[in-house]
Task: structure prediction
Amino acid sequence: MNRREFAKLGLAAGMLSIGGFPIGVSRAAGQTRGGTLNTIIQPEPPILVTALNQQQPTLTLGGKIYESLLRYDFDLKPLPGLAQSWEVSPDRLTYTFKLFPNITFHDGTPLTSEDVVFSVMKVLIENHSRARSTFSRIDKAEAPDPLTVVFKLKAPFSPFLTAFDCTTAPIVPKHIYEGSDFRKNPANAQAIGCGPFKLKEWVRGSHVHLVRHEGYYRPGEPYLDEIIYRVIPDSASRSVALEQGTVQLTQWGDVESFEVPRLTKLPNLAMTTKGYEFFAPHQWLEFNNRIAPMDDKRFRQAVMYAIDRKALLNRVYFGLGKIATGPVSSKTKFYEKDVKQYDYSLDKAKALLDEMGLKPGADGKRVSIPYLVPPYGESHQRTAEFIRQSLARVGVDLQLQGIDLAGWADKYSNWDFSMTATVVYQFGDPALGVARTYVSSNIHKGILFSNTAGYSNPEVDRLFEEAAVAGDDAKRQQCYSAAQKLIVEDAPVAWLLEMDYPNFMDKRLQNVITTAIGVHDTFGTVSFA
Result:
């Protein structure tokens, strides 16, 4: 019997005890401090250091281990994180942050402004696709005293204060990483941060065990004793674990869309789609624009016409989301609705492919293309099958290729793909979450979630840069609207859906979703009633 079969059997019997941990909540009745939160991490992350990997499982789990200067409310306004206060100069060039006192890393070393400067100017710029494009705008970073950080920009950058969440700018210990090969540093296995929880144990294929950081700087936090992230690859087993109370929280795609209607009826569970406002997840098909036939925009447009996105939303995702019309989500600022519309039309798709000279052969196939299936759960597999069937109707033969999470990230980031699908975050502002996918300056081989498609349009580059530095929202909207129209015409990717994700939680849990960062947040105030 393999691990998956064993886990499924144990969950169905209500007897699972992974790695010696008890089922359910270890707490006294009515206790508000203490206890164990059991939840899911799926798929298992390749690494826990969020500065070095920005895949969703790493960020969800790593948000408990690593922190940044700020957090954000549901309206995306900044809240104190490691910084208790901040000031912006009148010319919008100088940002001064004051850190809370008595912050320590998990190894007991005090965190100072030097750690912040090192993390932002060295580790993140070299390893983080989104941080690279944002923090390269810094002219000088200074640490005048242990609790003060000063960033001086080369030019005004409107969303700079939106760039310090735990997923964009996690702070790592300088004394551990300075002078090392960041990606090969032995301390990566310990994941030493300054968050409310620290790593006790990671048994690959089974669980990640986090325990309270006793030296945490916020008085009384965290409330929980520990969090156990259980690796449960099988989607049916994940649903059973939630039903039976083996886990008390699910997030992102832990619960497959087709299970949502049934689980929402259970009396012991609450469900919300809040907590994704900062991310506004955007799903699209990504083409490698460097190779034929993806290097011809007529092919990319044909794919847009060939996919019935309304049917995809309803049949695969059971209405959890909205059809995407372009690079900017309608849930965020600066969305432009007046763009080229790709209505579902097989005739338009076929006409464009004919115009390219991609005529169907005797078997009806025009071209065969490898499709790298994202290993993020059954919904992604179903999406791949839906896309394969859709494109087959116009003679495009997709050859689905399965792969593990680390392998997918490696091939995708190193441009070793023809077509794949991804879900990318917007991060509250196009300058942070959108531009990185389309500006030519962010074409960096080996960096995940950069401009991996290889799209380049000088006018788009100019418009994104002009919008980023403009201080007036009306001017920014003008630039972003123009950029969106150009990008949608070029169709460097095929936008599918603006995703909604269900967070299921035991009704005894309190303070789970308190900010726009949602389940990526620290969980310092999460407790059981």
About this structure: Residues 473-490 form the longest helix (18 residues). Confidence is low (pLDDT under 50) at residues 1-31. The first strand starts at residue 36 and ends at 40. The chain has 16 helices and 21 strands.
